Amino acid sequence: MNFTFDTVANLIFETGAANRLGDIIKNRMQRPCIVTDKGVIGAGLIGDALASLKKAGLDYFLFDGVEADPPAKVVRNAVTAAKDHGSDGVIGFGGGSSMDTAKVIAVLLNSAQSLDEIYGTNMVRGDRAPLVLLPTTAGTGSEVTNISIITSDDDLKMGIVAPQLYADVAILDAALTLSMPRHVTSATGIDAMVHAIEAFTNKLYKNPISDALATKALALLSRNIQHACDEPGDTKAREAMLLGALLAGQAFSNSPCAAVHAMAYPLGVHFHVPHGLANSLMLAPVLRHNMPVAERLYAELGPVIGTAQNANAFLEKMLSICAATGVTNRLSDVGVSHNVLPKLAEDAIKVERLMKCNPREVTYDDALRLYTEVL
Ligand SMILES: NC(=O)c1ccc[n+]([C@@H]2O[C@H](COP(=O)([O-])OP(=O)(O)OC[C@H]3O[C@@H](n4cnc5c(N)ncnc54)[C@H](O)[C@@H]3O)[C@@H](O)[C@H]2O)c1
Ligand SMILES: [Fe+2]
């Protein structure tokens, strides 16, 4: 059995830690660029962290222009703004979109490479600027992955995968996640569960450490997602979700996602379906497609989420967990119509980085059939 496993070296899991951000980072950077979006600002999450930066004497620059599924154009603007400020480090503060943007800024800040040159696996050359990440969703796990997902100029969700994308420090403060509205809690929580499932069933990179992390993650997430939706102010449930998302992130960073994600991506690009909701929509058809080859592994996950050791019981329980959070299971509810399915299928099979990891091959015809199943 051969495998490698990498993760972020320094994790701080502490509710309230964002209030002492300045102290935590002051030996790493003096002029941080802090990267976020308007939703995070509007939720009032960043004020105390900014005050702590000021108190620590750090001359920060706030970039709050991140957009969901970050478009390349926005990322380039952010890099230029950080260079203009003379930033010497980057702090990602927000959901996956903000953290993914921060990662790319850190890589390009002192680099001669352009964004287009770093798409793909191991295309980044040289060192990056210091990088600290604080998730406010639970979540993408981006705080501990070597991945950034950017929407390219020709409307494809492109992965940038490189060891330089592992942050120096990830700060996990559950207080930052209390303000997530129900639809964000459910979508991001389901995203994290899909990370765990796809890591556990990866055809090429499945490994015992990712397996242990994925099963622990799935247990935490499945037991707490409903409660986090119903009682958004419950810090214990929020901590469990944040921990689950973190562990799932460590798992899939080393045993990547597969067809659920590949088929979710075009829904984000063409219909602006939030990433987690898109995964939720594609979960059932892809799991059913994989069943003939992944039945034993899905069965193993049954008891992890509190049902029988049986693949169908696992699938049914997953669907009932998703449904109970209030998400739809129909593409037509998010604006998708029959005539666009060929374009979605075409784009999905282009995501070879993920498709090759799926337990069972997904052809163009399969992809078209799977989208049609949930129209
Ligand atoms: N790099 C990775 O490893 C990785 C993994 C999975 C997904 N992703 C990417 O991450 C992105 C999705 O990230 P996401 O699901 O975290 O969503 P997001 O970052 O796009 O945020 C979704 C919305 O929630 C708001 N929000 C975030 N935190 C909040 C809070 N605490 N309170 C209130 N509102 C809050 C944001 O303002 C935004 O409007 C996608 O682009 C996806 O492809 C990356
Ligand atoms: Fe995801």
From TrEMBL:
Lineage of producing organism: Bacteria, Pseudomonadati, Pseudomonadota, Alphaproteobacteria, Parvularculales
Protein family per UniProt: Belongs to the iron-containing alcohol dehydrogenase family.
Keywords, comma-separated and alphabetical: Oxidoreductase
A Pfam family matched in the record: ADH_Fe_C
Family matches, as Gene3D superfamilies: 3.40.50.1970, Dehydroquinate synthase-like - alpha domain
Domain annotation Alcohol dehydrogenase iron-type/glycerol dehydrogenase GldA: ranges: 10-173
CDD domains to which the protein is assigned, alphabetical: HVD
PANTHER family the UniProt entry points to: ALCOHOL DEHYDROGENASE (PTHR11496), ALCOHOL DEHYDROGENASE 4 (PTHR11496:SF102)
Domain of life: Bacteria
Residues covered by the Fe-containing alcohol dehydrogenase-like C-terminal domain: 186-373
Protein name stated in the entry: Iron-containing alcohol dehydrogenase
InterPro entries from the UniProt entry: ADH_Fe/GldA, ADH_Fe_C, Alcohol_dehydrogenase_Fe
Keyword Transferase: no
